Request: fold
Amino acid sequence: HGFGDELDFLYLPVDFQHGVNRGYAFLNFKDPLVALKFQGHFQGVSLRCFLSAKVTKVEPALVQGVEANIARLEPDLMGLVAI
Reply:
C-alpha cells in the first residue's frame, strides 16, 4: 500500500513456539501526517485473509519516535537482527 518507505521503525512480536505473530505491531512513521493517512486506510479493516472475524485497530502509541521505541523495547530486541 506504499507505506513501507515512510517507516523508520517496525516491531512485530512473534510467538515462535506457535509460529504466529501476537496480533499487534509497533510502527513509527517519519511524518505524522503519513501516520494519519495509514490510520485512515487501515482502521477497521477486516482480516478475512486470515479466516478471522477480527478487524484492525490503529491507535497512537504512548511512546513516540524511533529512538524512544528502541530504548523501550531494547530488552526484548537483544540478539535480534534489524532487517
